[in-house]
Amino acid sequence: MKHRILTVFAGLSVLAFTNCTDLEEEILDESLTGSEGLVEPINGSMAAAYGILPQTFRHTRYFGLQEIPSDEAILPPRTGLGGTQWADNDTYTTAHRHLMSSNNSLVTGAWSYLTTALFRTVAAIDVITPMAEDGDAEAVQALAEMRALRAYENMLFLDSWGLAFGKETTSETSEILRGEEAVAYIESEFLTALENINNDRGPGRMTEDAIYGYLAKLYLNAAVYRDPYGTPNFSDSDMQKVVDYTDNIINNGGYSLSSEYFDLFNDENHDNSELIFALDLRGVLNNDHNRWAYWSMSGSLFPRPGEFYLSMDGTDGPAMTSDFYQTWVNAYGDTDPADADARFYKKNAEVPAELEDISGLTPYKNDTLGKVSDKDHYFVAGSDFEIDRGIIRGTMWAPRKTEFRSGSFMTGTDANGNSGFKIFPLAEARENGSEEEDITYYVDHTLDISLDGSAGYASGYRFAKWQFSKTSDDGNNYSSVDLVLLRLADVYLMRAEAKLRMGDNAGALQDVNTVRTSRDARPDQTPAAWSSIDLESLYRELGFEFYWEMHRRQDQIRFGKYEDSWTSKSDSDPNHRLFPIPQEAIDGASNVEGYLLQNPGY
């Protein structure tokens, strides 16, 4: 059903019905090119539109909204001497159990920032349109970018809340679109943008290939978007469009799959040839934090030694569910996934063999305290030390500080006379009541984790997929790691799924094997090619390739898995495929009867 309302904009109010108050922006510089671009109307308006997206995708907003309700991640209140952390009024427990309310902060935060992002994009279109109509070539290209960005943002709304906002200018009426109307509107926006866009400015900007990729994603999920509560009907016509759009990108030849999987999530990833669309966080554009790196990691972890990284740590946030880990075990049987798949784990901390065994050792805090049995159980590394990456099990190795919060990193010399930072097995410092108390045990990440109240700080395997940025000059603040939103592997695997749903098993198998065998920078961990394929194995593969990238919830819904039971979650209501619309947004629209209605099931 379509509704119309005249909306009024003031400052950062986005749509008349949002009425949200948590937009505490921390923007350093939203210029696309540096400070000189701020006074130029085209660049300035586009920078404002792009610049808010890193904050929109924060862990406590859209990123968390996609990850925590999936079978991939779980965030329990963590018990310790200081009480509980991450209890947060049951924000994360109810999200994981699919029992969230319309006031859940993941929902309200994601909605607030996404509506603000959409407003800024529409406002940019207002600024740029007159210049484009006058024939300014730069404005024509910029207008196409902004229309594509508006379509992308509306697709995020459609995916999460089942609606899109049809709005041409800030002064005209806004239409709430659902189902087929929303799909058709988003497609028309993308197709219109294609008429005047090129591939010159990626991956931090919308390009022709980004549009092709999102058109493919739109039609891969179109059956769900048309009927979000029913059983999807994946028609051959939709799947053929997915194949056609992905063919455009693959046949273009402008991208290549990254040989080293974790290079995709490093500081230098902006220039990685696999990226198609990402949030550009380099240099003056790095207006957000290392959130995707630090959210899951141990709060006792200080991952990067050096004077600039004294406050760079983890938060003991989400962990991997045992169910998601089991999919890796099921895939590789008796072989440890770390030995079979380069995407699962990368060893960076090269611990000498004689130091690997830490059984019987007790960690220590500094030389003035009594328990120093592991005092010499370290190796020395330079300032370029990197923690292990991927899925973290057991005890990591990392730098240690003389005092947990206020100290400096320990340095020393090894038996060969090499000096540098001491790298120890990670000791649990966070649960101590004060800086004066000794550390008595190591952080040992265990598989078992649940929402039953027993989760300690170390419970659960952790996601170390994104690099702690080397350009941070304030601990966890600021990052040059682009947040990847669309990459070539996604294009190949969308095409594989579409082919498989149309019965082309051979074509699907070839695409999947292309991606798997491309991760060959560490040959002994290169995933082996498959000999056969079905929907179940493809679904599992999507989890391996895209974990911790906001993919899993969408994939689960499309493959009919979202109503399944997994760690601490048993809800099976299909109404919960979509999130509740924030109550504050509904209240803000209450003067227009029937304009913004709550989604079923809330």
TrEMBL record:
Q: Which family does it belong to?
A: Belongs to the SusD family.
Q: What is its main location?
A: membrane
Q: Which Gene3D superfamilies match?
A: 1.25.40.390
This chain's protein is named RagB/SusD family nutrient uptake outer membrane protein
Keyword set includes Membrane: yes
SUPFAM superfamilies recorded for this chain? TPR-like
The organism encoding this protein is: Zunongwangia endophytica
Q: According to the entry, what is the taxonomic lineage of the organism?
A: Bacteria, Pseudomonadati, Bacteroidota, Flavobacteriia, Flavobacteriales
Q: Which InterPro entries match?
A: SusD_RagB_dom, TPR-like_helical_dom_sf
